[in-house]
Amino acid sequence: MxxxxxxxxxxxxxxxxxxxxxxxxxxxxARGKQLYMNDGCYACHGTRGAGGGIAGxxxxxxxxxxxxxxxxxxxxxxxxxxxSAQVLSDGQIADIYAYLKSIPAGKxxxxxxxxxx
Amino acid sequence: xxxxxRKPREAITKFGRRGFLKGSVxxxxxxxxxxxxxxxxxKQPGKAPLKPSRLDEGLGPHPDDNSYLSxxxxxxxxDVLRKTGIDRVAFVPGDTFKGLxxxxxxxxxxxEPKMAYSAVNHEEISVAFCHGYxxxxxxxxxxxxxxxxxxxxxxxxxxxxxxxxxxxFCIVGARIYSAERRxxxxxxxxxxxxxxxxxxxxxxxxxxxxxxxxxxxxxxAYKFAMTPPYGPVVLQTDMTLQENPLPNDTxxxxxxxxxxxxxxxxxxxxxxxxxxxxxxxxxxIAADRAARTxxxxxxxxxxxxxxxxAVVDSQARFNFPWRHPLNQSMRQRPTVAQADLVLxxxxxxxxxxxxxxxxxxxxxxxxxxxxYMKSNYGDYQHFADVNMAIEADAEATLPALIEAVRRRxxxxxxxxxxxxxRKLAEAHQKTxxxxxxxxxVGWDEQPISVPRLCQELYAxxxxxxxxxxxxxxxxxxxxxxxxxxxxxxxxIGDAGAYGLGYLPGAALGAATAHAKHGRLAVAxxxxxxxxxxxxxxxxxxxNHIPILYIIHNNKAYFNEIMAxxxxxxxxxxxxxxxxxxxxxxxxGINYSKLAKSMGVAGFGPVTDPNELAPILKQAIxxxxxxxxxxxxxxxxGR
Lengths: 117, 638
Hints:
- The structure holds two protein chains of two kinds.
- Chain A is mostly helical.
- In chain A, 36% of the residues lie in helices and 0% in strands.
- Chain A has five helices and no strands.
- In chain A, α2 packs across α5 (90-102).
- Chain B is 41% helix and 12% strand.
- Chain B has helices at residues 8-31, 73-84, 98-108, 123-137, 149-163, 184-188, 211-225, 239-243, 267-279, 294-307, 332-337, 350-354, 394-408, 411-440, 450-461, 478-482, 502-515, 527-530, 536-542, 558-570, 591-597, 612-624, and strands at residues 88-91, 116-119, 142-145, 169-174, 204-206, 233-238, 283-287, 310-313, 341-345, 362-367, 388-391, 466-468, 520-526, 548-553, 601-606, 629-634.
């Protein structure tokens, strides 16, 4: 019954994004969304990239550069699950990235009265 | 149910354990005439004993023994319990404590000071109920559990209470004498040393064989449970001892329970800690169970303000106001990284705070943890490498420490302290603003974002005398990040050992304790945790426990999904199948209907965040009338 407390480890999955973004290949945003859900990104980062509080950092809107996302996926700087090309191809990463890029910015905290309590 | 004595095995297996127990208790009640209180033996005019009693042989009444009993050993046990201050008992029935059961309902609940009974429907819930109750009330409730299988059910919850340093008073029935084992199930439900099952994670246990011994053992158990570090205790209580009359119809003396003083730190050591705190440039106080009582909270605020130093609260108790400018809990890492001294107060995992600090950082601790520890289970945590450890209760030590800090603080240090305090207040405010911005992202999302859920709830309760009865780690500490809270009872921490099934029972116990103070009890609990003990909904309805129970419905055992994804990907197998064993789907669970089926008002599933406010309003109106409500909210994972 005692569930393993992996939260602490997952908290550490702060992404390190330093590399420049290359030119964007053609992508399929809808497929990216499907991959984002099926490949478990949503679990730590929320269904729309908002971040999962203690679980994972925010990815959208305005995601970090694609190459940085890819680097983090291939060789996580933390206890985030590593994604090899065997389980997630470069093309699939690009699709996911396209989905993240498509997510529009929401309201800011100052526009939400419930966040001024 | 009637029991066929000629075919005991068949008769029992036909009905199962609970059916059998229910029948046997009912049968016992039907057979017995009312048992008198120890102070007033029953008279049954015209009804002489039908047969010679076996009681003189030291055995309990046989099912065929219809002799009348002039007093009850278990009435004395009830008197002992209430003399210690125990005023509430939770249990699901069990054959080996039917003497106590009968004494409670016909004696303890009807004579002053009246005891209260809380119905539950699982021994794990009994213990969890007492766990939550004790954290609010500051004293233990009792739970009665059946021998063997009952204690086995209770064991995980006892481990939670042990790891959370919470006093729970558990009485486990026993059928110690083989002459009392009349049928198959009696043997299956008999054990000589029952408490050995939980001895690794209970503070003390005992098996008294006389009533006088019971009195001594019970008072001693209570005293141990309530001496820091607190912990659960177990009394194995033989059914014969419960069911037999008092020797000579005279109750033994009940031992005196003294006002105990928790161990406080040595004066010289406390003075040295004060000297180091005053001399430090960036001292940090790390607290976990430092505030055992509201007084502890006030003392910790006083100490931090005297030093104008940072406090990082690990949240096992309400140690520090959430919006206090010196509260740096939401920026623990950078705060501790800048420390030149860390003082741990009743820390569960001090190593987790100080383990990576350079050796130049002074590391001190005040904790009662080291005064009582056991070997087998690892809840003692990684050894914390400290320079100086005061083995004492932190709350009891704080007055002397505050006095020493004040005495040792020269006027020349005051301005430096104030400047430090101002910096910390700025950092606190920046953290709050960052939290608000983070909460804004995904505000209108579906599934509903967790900070949206928390803020919609807070908007409805902030003008009430509210108390949150769940731990918030799986809600990413959003309440601590965004809410105002400054009262000790407003947060009671989590399960201790993270054994699932804690919250449903503990929430009911906590809400029961809050109810008599007129507080609005609120819980946000995971769907996976809830499904370990969904029967609590019946208990909430039956006991009329006013609580708003929100299901954080993320449709999975989310923590395990994350863990499984990592290992699957490290093996290059992908994670598309990691929902297997983790998902709570196909079919999805309708928690609202589940609640309604047991008599609790249910709302949801709520999928639109804009529907939260009106639904929560309706739900709180019901809670204010004294009834439980469940609201199922389909939300993001964390």
